Each structure stands twice: as structure tokens, then as C-alpha cells.
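Review form for a predicted model. The reviewer records the input and the model, then writes brief findings.
Reviewer: anonymous (R2)
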Amino acid sequence: MSTIRDVARLANVSTATVSRILNNDTTYKMTEKTKNSVLHAVMELNYAIPASHKNTKRKAEFPLKNRKIGCILRVTKKGYNDPYYMSVLAGIEGSLRKSGIDLKFIKAAPLLQEKEQFDSIFREALDGLILMDPLSDTLYQSIKSKVSAIVGIDTLRDDIDDVGYDHLQSGILATELLIKKGHKKIGFVGGSGEGSTLHDSKRFQGYLVAMYKAGLPMRRNWIIDCEWKEELCIQKIDALCKESDLPTAIFAASDLMAMAAMNSFYNNSVRVPDQICVIGMSDIEMSQYANPPLTTFHVPKEEIGRIAVTLLLSRLHGEHILSQKVLLPIEYVERNSVSEL
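Model under review:
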């Protein structure tokens, strides 16, 4: 069985630091990097706080393997077809298996809007839920009334633990990279969550910030809201290709949309990166096999899933602390779809 010293050694911190983080002691300031390192170590070692050290007000526990945990995926009604969320799900399932837990269910968010489906899913008591979709406020509150422990993934909800990456900063970084490459005519391809508009997208806001700071023009027809639909993305890029004044680069807010855009450029004889450059976001596995291989930013997808599980199990162990927001770093992956202007 792992000890707090094992956690401290793996995270390269002191045992006191581990104790402070696990007990949410804010007496001393600690960086997000340090907190994440400790959480990673706790997860990797499957460390559980000894009973003698636990808060006496915590709930009586029963074996974790008996816990009933569900997962709500952020997908369309077409099904489980987004490699990004499938990678996050792989991290969730793998981490739960290490604790001897199987997911009770995996459901697509759109199904919850159907009353019969909702009633069927939550008919039995659920101990915990991992939520990948922010959902409407009404639907979210309905679920919260039925499940006491919820951890979100990129939900931006303030009243639950949430894991993800900084979408605003990612949009700034991707756009600034294109600017540093000499591009001044830069377009955007992306979408927004259900019930919101493109302007609510943090990655789009990051694009706007970077363009504004650089004093660069933003043409409306270079900004494409594809609603995260590949077919719609291709249609709108097809229409863009018929115009005489193309941007020299595109920031696509996901790798799937980047590859859909490149497919359209290829069909319209617009060469990437010779005539237009494309940068994506997420680094899904297939992006390295695109034609040309896609330049993107790596998002630690499976790690996001694993940390979500760590936070959820902590809640199920009886942790009563303020909601935590964990933002993991992204990393630039240089391939062949972006070149110097």
C-alpha cells in the first residue's frame, strides 16, 4: 500500500506539501503545477488517506468497487465519434479500473433531453458522475439534485470540481504562433456549445484577443462557425475557396475541424501549406496522418480523464473542500501544415 512519503517522492515535494494539498490547506501558496504533480502522484499510486488521518465528519465508506459511477459524454446524436472525448473517456475508464470500478453507464448528453431517457438513466441511485458537457442550467440542476458527487470536464461550472485546459490561452497561443510565422490574414474555424454562440467560445475569444493585440484585420467571411459539424465545415470552406481573397492561415479550434477544412482545401485545389496554412487544437491520434500532417497543440486528454477520476474518488472518500479547477498545460506540436509566410 502506498504511503504519503511515496506520493511526496513521486511528486518531488515534501510530505507536508502533499498533506496541505490533500487537506486543501491554503495557509501557504502553491502553484497549480505543484498541485497537479501531487494529484498525478496520488492517482498513479492509488493512494488513499489513512483512516486515522481522515476528517471525522466524512461519510462512512464502503468498498470503492461497489460505487455506482456514470459518465455523460459531450457528443452529438450521431454517436460516440469524437476522438478527443474518446481519449478522455479512455483515461476515465483506465483509472477507474485500477480502483476496481466499472462505469455504470456512458450516455451522450443529447439523450438527457428526452424525459424517458433521463428518468431511465437516473432511476437508480448514483454515487458519482463525470460530466463532459456543461448542459443547460435546468438539466444540470436536475442531475445535481440526484447525484451528490459530480466532476466536470471543461464544463466551466463553478460549483463542482472541473478539469481541462485553458481554452482562452490556447486560442491566443495558436493565433500568435501564426502571427509569428508572418501571417496577417488569419481566419478562424470553430463552434460553440449548445445554447450558446460562437462569441461564447473561449478559443474564439483567444483568437480575437491575439488579432486585436497585433492590430490585424478580422474579416467576417474568414470567421467560420461550423457548429462542430464536419460536413458543415467542409461546405463553408468550399464557399470560402470560391472567394478571390483567401486568408493565408486558419486556426481551427479542434483537429477534426482542421482536417475537415484541409479536406475541402484539397478538393478545391488550394494547397496546404503553400497557399494556406492550418493549425489545429487537441492533437488527436489521426492528426499525424493527415495530408499534410497537422500542426497542432497537444492536449493531455487521457490525463484529463484520469485526474477527473482522482477528484471524484476523493469526493466519494468524503472530502469536503471547495470546488477545484485543474487546468493542464498544452504543448505545441510542429508538423507540416504550417509554414513561414
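Findings: Confidence is low (pLDDT under 50) at residues 51-62.
Further findings: The two ends are 56 Å apart (CA to CA).
Recommendation: see findings above.
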